[in-house]
Specification:
One of its GO terms (biological process) is cell wall organization. By secondary structure, this protein is an alpha/beta fold. It has 17 helices and 20 strands.
Amino acid sequence: MKRLVVLGGGESGVGTAILGKKENFDVFLSDRGAIKDKYKAMLEEHGITYEENQHTEELILNADIVMKSPGIPKKAALIQKLKEQGTSVISEIEFASRYTDAKIIAITGSNGKTTTTSLMYHILKQAGLNVGLGGNIGTSFALLVATQKYDYYVLEISSFQLDDIETFRPDVAILLNITPDHLDEYDYSFDKYAQSKFKITENQSENDYFIYNLDDPKTVDMIGGINVRANQNPFSMRDANQNSYANNEFFFVNDSDGGLKMRIDELSLIGTHNISNSLAAATAANILKVRKESIKKSLMDFKSVEHRLEPVLTIGGIDFINDSKATNVNAAYFALESMKNPTVWIVGGKDKGNDYEELLPFVKKKVHSIVCLGLDNHKIIEFFSPYISTIVETNNMKDCVEQANKLANKGDTVLLSPACASFDLFNGYEDRGDQFKEEVRKL
């Protein structure tokens, strides 16, 4: 019996352990921190041995195969030891993909993954297909493979999950964009991070499809040096010669049988970046032979993702918007770009090597006050104080929302779009967004 050791007792770890048990592995799960009660209950229900608050090396180094959760750094000493002794260290998506022959639509990119993945799932579900949603969103892919029988999987995939693949091969891969993010994990090399994103297509064959954004400079810069065997389907908002193209007025996905055409104002998602995301999803749906009318209807009635440019309330003529999912500069860029009114911007958290330069044009034009929400805000204050006269610091959500409300005038927008990770003050971006909504409701 082969020994599978799972490192990390969160969603992906527990899903892998359950699938491993089902596939007759001798499974052991180890987490250096505490495991949540809900996950412990799942492990116990399936009779899986586990430990928490420690990694016992002799129980780990004897593994035939190790699944490491995406949150564990590649540089961790234990991972280095495993690799030195030649043990295969893989990600959950790699492990799960070995036990399903369903069609896989995999979506990666620095920004827009969750929205595009949710939209893709919505389109396929509305079209009546037997489809599961997982990966970096909702339920782990491994748990779905262990417990469900879907014909299609739509997966949101991070660069960390792609780093540890060996044979993972999606039928349709979508690369939305590549902007600097998580560079601390890639030796501060943008190229290394970009190569990681391109791993989504490395095992694809000429029977598969690779959809990518022709307007994204880094993608275009890199693609020449990558051996892409899959059918390439670029989409663009600049090059009208592409089959998948949108401008400010119309949206097209052209093919040999008439294609799909609709007006931009019919799309349910707002903002230029979301037209691009919609284009990617529509291109994939068309490849999968979903009826044009069905794609169109789904693009029109899709409800946006929680914590992503989510309108909360309008109080005293002030709009409050929750974009807590904007954990990097590029995501905040899209949020600021889509602001129509004078803005009070809530920013800050755990900095990931941020460069705020690209936000300056929007900040100068649209933002009149900044509310910092974080334990260490010096970088934000230093960078923006020459341009914004009102910058206040807060270290909890209650003060933050009260300060923002005081600074806003009727007709303004208060935008929570932090451009940073949330782990200095919160349990995650969802917790940050939920607290924001709760404090706004108390105003």
